[in-house]
Amino acid sequence: MPLNQKTILALAERLENAELQRSDIVKITDEFPEMDWEDAYAIQYAIRKRKLDRGSKLVGLKMGLTSFAKIKQMGVEEPIFGFLVSDYVRQDGGAIEFDQLIHPKVEAEIAFVLKSALSGPGCHVGDVLAATDFIVPAVEIIDSRYRDFKFDLKSVVADNCSSARFVTGGHARKPQDLDLRNMGIVLEKNGEVIATAAGAAVLGHPAASVAMLANMLGKRGEYIPAGTFVMTGGVTEAYAVARGDSVTARFQDIGSVSMRFT
Ligand code: OOG
Ligand code: MG
Asked: What are the backbone dihedrals phi and psi of residue 9, each rounded to the nearest 5 degrees, phi first?
């Protein structure tokens, strides 16, 4: 860990202030090129602590950059994980306050809710399906704190993987009643289809994303607790939205999620 604790805490504060004050910053590796993976997650965890200390509730975990479309769009090559807190939650069919965000983009994601804990190493798709209570559809609204969404992997990990808002809706279904690889997903903006995908866009099977999360956490001596809501990563590239836009994501067999930006 090349960065000391004081620098980690200062960068967490800088990134969280950028989020809360809606003012973008340059990617932090410009100033600290020596920063490593451990530093990046240490900054993310320091942001998480700032929010929890202020009374926010941890409501889930997310994987990012798990589909080829996202990897290609962002030019970065490896899946990453972040946290979800109560401040990010918005209601299905409701409004997303555009003024609170810098340059939001939407992405459709398949989400899992676990009935039992999952730990790595060696966690696989079968373990995930056995531990899953139900599947629900989600839309994540990402909003990088970095100018023009320009970052490298370590900078985006520190920035909690651009997390900003998310919406779940549709109806919960048991994983054994679904064909998760072939599940069709249609993303619409202002009534027009802007992207389509299948569940297999995420690491070949969305449950593989949850398994990867358990394995990544395992390396840190952590696990995914029972009851956790996990978003598996955007199935298509992320699409920019403007004030006034409405967005609907339709998921085969599990319903739709919609929101408007006001
Ligand atoms: C990083 C966040 C990635 C996803 O679903 O892939 C992510 C970004 O693209 O800004 O949430
Ligand atoms: Mg996402």
From this structure: -70, -35
Are 238 and 106 in contact by the 8 Å Cβ rule? The answer is: yes
Tell me which H or E stretch contains 193: strand 192-198
**Spatial separation of the C-alpha atoms in residues 94 and 89, rounded to whole Å:** 11
132/129 Cα distance (integer angstroms): 5
Across the chain, which distance is largest between two alpha carbons, in Å? 50
pTM of this prediction?
0.97
For the segment 119-164, what is each residue's pLDDT rounded down to a tens digit?
999 999 999 999 999 999 999 999 999 999 999 999 999 999 999 9
Tell me if 199 sits within 8 A of 183, measured CB to CB.
Answer: yes
The answer to whether 247 touches 189, Cβ cutoff 8 Å, is yes
Give me ligand 2 centre to Cα 89, in Å.
14
Please give the backbone phi and psi of residue 127, each rounded to the nearest 5 degrees, phi first: -60, -40
Q: What is the pLDDT of residue 75?
A: 79
Report, as an integer, the average pLDDT of 18-45: 97
Mean pLDDT of the chain: 97
Kindly list the protein residues whose Cβ atom lies closer than 6 A to any atom of ligand 1: 64-65, 70, 74, 107, 140, 142, 144, 156, 161-162, 233-234, 238
